Amino acid sequence: MKDLFACMGKKIKFEYSPPSLLIIKQLIMKFVLTGLCLLLTACTYSQSIEAVSVDSLKARYNNETIHFFKGYLSKGENGERIRFTDLKDQFAFSKEGANEFALFQKDRKTALLTLGGAFTCLVAAAIINKSNKDLSNGLIIGGLALDIISIPFSVRGSKRLQHAIWLRNRDAVFH
Fold first, then answer.
1. pLDDT in the model for residue 147
2. What is the C-alpha radius of gyration for the chain, rounded to an integer number of angstroms?
3. Which tens digit of pLDDT belongs to each residue from 39-95?
4. Is 131 exposed, middle or buried (0-12, 13-18, 19+ CB in 10 A)?
């Protein structure tokens, strides 16, 4: 395609030729190399950020979480024992965990009261056994019924305690 253009009174021939294949390959290589450099930079940057946050999360997890261990509660890397009476203080920063712990305490109190009632009935039945068989049998049945009633409260309370500690540990790590 030949066009004539006038430029300052001179006639200039302008011919359009498509870019050579070499120029196109060079442009593609520049874009590919630039993309690879950006990708490598982004990957190394994200790994360094991830490594720092994972290390800090591990440190928090090791130092701040509570665990059940052989029938007692321990906190931190050194296994500091926590008395059950002091456990409520551990939920100061975890509102959800504190609410679940309060529900656990209600279930535990109900289970202990029904178990206490069952024990009282069985002891009374043992004392009265020789003098009044009907009353003794009634107290045994009542004690066993109270014992059976306490089971769901005890199981639900145990699950709530575990969930409360899980919520508290989650909040300790991500707090």
1. 94
2. 38
3. 777 666 655 555 557 778 788 888 888 888 777 888 887 888 888 888 888 898 899
4. exposed
50 φ, ψ (degrees, to nearest 5):
-65, -40
Distance of CA 71 to the CA centre of its chain: 22
Which residue type, as a one-letter code, is found at position 120? T
Contacts of 167 (CB under 8 A, 6+ apart): 94, 96, 97, 100
d(CA 104, CA 112): 12
What are the strands, taking DSSP E only, across the chain? Answer: 2-7, 10-15, 66-69, 72-75, 80-82
Token pair listed for 27: 């442009």
Torsion sign, CA atoms 173, 81, 105, 146:
positive
- What would the two tokens of residue 134 be? 């009907």
